[in-house]
Write a structure and sequence with these properties.
The structure is a single chain. This protein has about 425 residues and is mostly helical. The chain has one domain. Helix content is about 75%, strand content about 5%. It contains 15 helices and 4 strands. The strands form 2 sheets. It has a two-stranded antiparallel ribbon with strand order 1-2. A hairpin with a 2-residue loop joins strand 1 and strand 2. The longest helix is centred in the N-terminal third of the chain and has 40 residues. The mean pLDDT is about 90.
Length: about 425
């Protein structure tokens, strides 16, 4: 059993699953900000109920997603001690900031938002949700700062066999950062919008009593998703230029640049296969194909007029069938970005074979099985809880329930039709 292969499989498994939590978190919190802001401005009860309904799903995903993130972080010390030792002084700085943002600011704002219903003024309560959203985006940004360094090491110098941070601003201006951040954010908003549209479509197909409520969330989710997919493709194709400049072997067709770079690496690190695996190119191709497929969803937007999208019914089934596509695409995108830099842990600086911990195959296999079962169990629990609460609808929600109900099931209140 090859410890390196097992360590890579473990990191791929845990990171892929965690990434699915991340895109749902970022997407839903963006939509929640809109919904609660609309409630505060318009005072319409429908927006409050939508905020409570989607807020419940968001909290479930957030809590279990944090657990998967903690599991993933353990691997840097357990399986990749060579990476931590060699570039930890640089790579660890943005991750430390992300930890402070996510575990202190974001979780504090979220906790106050969850328990602040009917206890805080509406404006203060809304400000807390804005704080949750902004810190969530900041958390994603700092993770990508760290990842961008691994894609294109900058702002460091090697002293005594260890990389030391010398220019923090270089991390923030890394050419592999900006468009990648926009791409990830767009993918998250697209995923959140598709999730909202699909759940709403499900309730409309079932002819749930809350017709007006889910009609509204269907419109919001679909418009959000179709707006995000345009930015997604824009940021995605815009990455080819800067990434190709610093990683010519990954996407570029410049044979001379590839040959020169491989010759340099061979002289510095010895002979080896420095070409990225075919899996990276295949993942990139299928991701683009899914993106192009989702673009066709813009033709559903005219059907929102006079509720033709609901009357025809088959577009609702199309939305349900399309729900897995954004999740598959984000995993393919991650594979294209990460596998595409092989065999490097830090591109042109540290090989993956030198980054792995000196652990035996048996121990690494046990770690792979244990971590995969743990993270997989959290993912299954998350989707079961999300499906269960989404299926129940917005009739009786614990989140934001007025204290005077004392847990009693409130009578359904007719909702006005919202556009």
């Amino acid at each position: 059993m090859d410890p390196l292969l097992l360590a890579r499989l473990q990191f791929a498994t845990t990171t892929s699953i965690h990434f699915l939590f991340v895109v749902v978190t970022l997407g839903l919190v963006t939509l929640l900000v809109y919904l609660q802001t609309a409630w505060v401005i318009t005072k319409k009860p429908a927006y409050e109920r939508l905020t409570r309904f989607w807020g419940t799903l968001y909290v479930i995903n957030y809590v279990l997603g944090i657990a998967t993130g903690i599991v993933m972080e353990f691997q840097f010390g357990l399986n990749w001690s060579g990476l931590s030792r060699y570039v930890g002084n640089v790579f660890g700085a943005p991750l430390a900031i992300e930890t402070l943002v996510a575990f202190f600011l974001e979780s504090t704002f979220l906790g106050m938002w969850i328990f602040g219903w009917h206890r805080l003024r509406r404006g203060v309560h809304l400000a807390l949700l804005w704080g949750v959203a902004l810190t969530a985006y900041a958390s994603a940004f700092w993770v990508l700062v760290a990842n961008a360094f691994l894609q294109n090491p900058v702002g460091y110098e090697v002293r005594d066999g260890v990389a030391h941070l010398t220019d923090f601003s270089a991390l923030l201006t890394n050419p592999t950062l900006g468009m990648a951040f926009g791409h990830v954010v767009s993918a998250a908003v697209l995923t959140g919008g598709m999730l909202m549209a699909a759940v709403s479509a499900w309730h409309l197909i079932r002819r749930t009593a809350d017709y007006a409520l889910f009609r509204t969330s269907l419109r919001i989710g679909l418009v959000t998703a179709m707006s995000a997919v345009i930015f997604l493709l824009g940021f995605g194709f815009a990455q080819f230029g800067p990434v190709g400049a610093v990683q010519p072997i990954k996407y570029s067709n410049d044979a001379a640049a590839k040959s020169a770079l491989i010759a340099d690496w061979t002289a510095r690190f010895g002979p080896g296969d420095y070409n990225p695996p075919p899996l990276a190119g295949a993942a990139l191709g299928f991701m683009i194909l899914i993106g192009m497929t989702l673009v066709w969803g813009v033709f559903l937007l005219p059907l929102l007029f006079r509720d033709w999208i609901i009357r025809l019914r088959f577009p609702l089934y199309l939305i349900l069938l399309a729900l897995p596509l954004p999740f598959v695409a984000v995993i393919l995108g991650w594979i294209a970005r990460e596998v595409g830099r092989q065999p490097w842990a830090a591109y042109g600086l540290l090989k993956v074979s030198d980054a792995v911990s000196p652990v035996g195959g048996g121990m690494m296999l046990a770690s792979l099985i244990g971590f995969s079962l743990l993270v997989g169990g959290l993912a299954v629990a998350n989707w079961v809880l999300l499906a269960r609460h989404a299926h129940r609808g917005a009739d009786d929600l614990a989140l934001g329930r007025p204290p005077e109900t004392d847990g009693a099931r409130p009578d359904p209140v007719p909702e006005p039709v919202l556009v």
